[in-house]
Amino acid sequence: MITNLVIFAFIVGLLSGAVIIAAIFWAKDLGLFMNWWKWLLFAFWYIVLLFLIFAAFTFIGEGEPVAGWRASGIAVFVMMVLGLGLIRLLRKAPKNSG
Amino acid sequence: MKKKIIKEESSCSRREFIKIGGAVAAGLQVGAVAGAGLAAGKDPSTHTGWQHLGDNTQFVDRTKLVRKGPAYKIVGETLRPEMQESAFGRQGLIMRDIRQYREMIRSFDAGEERQQGMGNKQPAPQGETAPEVTGGVGPTREEIKFPPVEAFNEPMLSYYKSRPDLYELDKVRMEEIMPKKRQDRENYGDYYTLINAWSGSWRTSERITEPPEESDFKIGHNRRIGDPKPFKSPAHAARLIKKVAHHFGAAMVGITTIEPDWCYNYDLRGSDNRGTYEVPKHWKYVIAFGVPHQWEQVNSNPNSGTSFDAYSRSTIAARRLETFIKSLGYPARRHSPMDGYDLIAVPYLVKAGLGEQGRHGIVITPETGSNFRAAFVTTNLEMEIDQPIDFGVKEFCEHCQICAEICPSGSISTAKNNEGMNTRGYSHWEINQTSCYNFWMQSMGGMGCRLCLIACPYSRKSNWVHSLARKLDTNDPTGLVDNGLTMMQKKLFDAPEAHEYLPPPDGRFANFRQPPEWLQVKNYLDIEVTDPTIGD
User: What digits encode the pLDDT tens for the residues B87-96?
Assistant: First the structure.
């Protein structure tokens, strides 16, 4: 059990590293004006997304597929709306950027 | 210039690679989290109340280890085993013959002429007389003087003639090892007090046939309890009793004092008196504990579930605990589903701090929700007592009402709260027991219902989602979490309507969830069945 957890954490850690590096390039190429609190907001949004997916699939795993899919649907919808709002916010240039 | 362009193209493609790689990694991460969620949901170690048990019946996949051929190679004439071949079986035969031999010697000593030999040809039942097997007090040296080979009856006579080596070994055991062990027990027995009590507890099975003044002071039907072994303190006693109760199968244990109001006013078990009785003076403390239902089948209530799994387990735990306490010299009496109760379960569970009484009239605990069955042991062993607990059930039940809405017999109150409810002078949630019982008689499978027990949000699986929800709810004084969880429970988790659990034509013998595959006839038996749960 512990071994599985360690392997899982290792793989997710590697993937997280790749996501973080790619996110920096994506932000530049998409013309986003990022600063520390915007990165923090994005990280928060991403972690909440993962957390909700984790929860929804836990429901499916425990034998409650209806609850799991409903929770997934709600989570995806809410996170998309929040994601669109977040993109708009990230596109805004800081006031002192000229 | 050309070199620069190539460098830019290379840089661009590396950049694109990192970007696409990152996007793929994000997708994989979502997949990994979803997979982890599935695993967390399925994890048998989150079966409420059974977190320590796995799901598998085998640890190793034996299909890969199968070898060809029979289990053993046959090298001679095959024979069925005889009783004297086994050391345990032989012990019964030996004790029978020794008794007869001793009787014969005594008869001669008394001047009586008894030369007809040792007549009884029926071997004693296996294990009945073997001190090592029964664990009783062994015979004295004089009693177990080992007879010569010729003094034994058949089949031992022939057996010892053919196996003199075993005769010698048996003789050594009976004449030297066992008397020595008896002496060792006298010298060092106290050192093993707890392990002896523990070991003896697993053998308990006698029914209660005598009043408390008798049965509570005996181990089995014959052996009086010894002098009470003093504990270092009531706290030590409580700690030990809780620990062994857990090992005997209890998921949670609490201790409280006896309350005469909560002892039945009729039919004291083991007593001829069918009417009222005075609560025995040695019932000072009540050890209350609970055992959860098997997780996979409990969700298939009311028509494909049972009460008897947890009934049986809690009863066995109670029998063991009773014997353990008696083995330490204190009177004790079990109160359990299979052996009967002389007291009411719910208030003692509340008073002992195991949980709170819910809208459905039964107790909700932080560990198992409503999914458990209770048993008790009354004793005069002085123990540190527990206090009632509050983890927000009262407020939650006022908001929730899921059990009342799903109850097929409408036996659970839908009142806003339990104010004004009065049961023999005590205020708590009341249900209509008679209409509830009438539905038990209608239901299929293992009879009974248990729907309120499993529909209760506190009874959900103990995986991280529900455990987190319960923790948040317990620590939220505003009631917002209560409302949020109840709403989520009703909107996300489907369940048949109350009437669907009824027999046709009003219902369809529905279950809260499908029974596990190992309880579905179609998966294992080759018989024609009509499935009433499909409905019209």
Answer: 888 989 999 9
Burial class (CB in 10 A: 0-12, 13-18, 19+), B458: buried
How far does CA B379 lie from the centroid of its chain? Answer: 20
User: Considering only CB atoms, which chain A residues are within 8 Å of B23?
Assistant: 22, 26
The residue behind tokens 């954490």 is A9
DSSP state of A35: -
pLDDT higher than 60, residue B50 = yes
Interface size A-B, in CB pairs within 8 Å, comes to 111
Cβ distance of B34 and A54 shorter than 8 Å: yes
Question: B490: nearest CA in chain A?
Answer: A67
- CB of B461 within 8 A of CB of B48? yes
- How confident is the model at residue A91, as a pLDDT? 86
Q: What is the DSSP string of B255-270?
A: EEE--GGGB-SS--TT
DSSP B412: B
State CA B128 to chain mean position distance.
Answer: 27
CA distance B267 to B206: 19
Confidence of residue B144 (pLDDT cuts 50, 70, 90): low
Nearest to B140 by CA among B193, B98, B109: B98
Pairing assessment for the beta strands B373-379 and B332-335 based on DSSP bridges: antiparallel
Q: pLDDT > 70: what percent of chain B?
A: 88
Burial class of residue B336 (count of CB atoms within 10 Å of its CB; 0-12, 13-18, 19+): buried
List the single residue in A14, A25, A70 with the smallest CB-CB distance to B18. Answer: A25
Q: Do A60 and B37 touch (CB under 8 A)?
A: yes
Please give the residue of chain B at the shortest CA–CA distance from A74. Answer: B492
Q: Which of A18, A21, A53 sits opposite B34 (nearest CB)?
A: A53
Min Cα separation A57/chain B (Å): 5
Residue B169 has pLDDT above 70, yes or no: yes
Q: Are B197 and B329 in contact (CB under 8 A)?
A: no
> Does pTM surpass 0.90?
no
| pLDDT in the model for residue B12 | 65
Of B40, B465, B492, the CB nearest to A70: B492
β-bridge mates for residue B336, sequence order:
B340
A92: closest CA of chain B, how far (Å): 22
Q: Which amino acid is at A65?
A: P
Residue A81 contacts residue A58 (beta carbons within 8 Å): no
Q: Average per-residue pLDDT in chain B?
A: 85
Q: Which residues pair with B423 in a beta bridge?
A: B426
B80 CB-near residues (< 8 Å, 6+ apart) = none
| Tokens at B144, concatenated | 């177990």
Using left for φ > 0, alpha for ψ between -120 and 50, and beta otherwise, residue B69 falls in: left
% of chain A residues with pLDDT over 70: 93
pLDDT digits (tens, 9 = 90+) for B299-337: 999 998 899 999 999 999 999 999 999 999 999 999 999
Is B251:B53 a contact under the CB 8 Å cutoff?
Answer: no
What is the DSSP pairing of strand B285-291 with strand B363-364? unpaired
